[in-house]
Write a structure and sequence with these properties.
The protein is an all-alpha fold and 79 residues long. It has four helices and no strands. The N and C termini lie far apart (35 Å).
């Protein structure tokens, strides 16, 4: 019986957000969508720019600009 725990979602989300702020162009489509979902779930605290970037990411993650990915990462880190 193993007592090893799987990494917490919040921990992996935090790591993903750091990756977004430091190396935004290295994120996969799935990772960008994961950040976008997180920002949209806490939407009342997101700026209009962050909300628009998250909505754009849901529809076309490859179309996001670097500054939009960084904004999603920063918002996730501040949550």
């Amino acid at each position: 019986m193993s007592h090893d725990k799987a990494p917490h979602t919040s921990s992996s989300l935090h790591d993903l957000a750091r990756k977004a702020t430091h190396s935004p162009k290295l994120l996969t489509k799935a990772e960008i969508i994961q950040l976008a979902d997180h920002v949209l779930k806490g939407g009342e605290h997101a700026s209009e720019f962050e909300k628009e970037a998250a909505k754009k990411a849901r529809h076309n993650p490859e179309g996001l600009e670097e500054n939009e990915i960084i904004a999603l990462g920063k918002k996730t880190l501040s949550a």
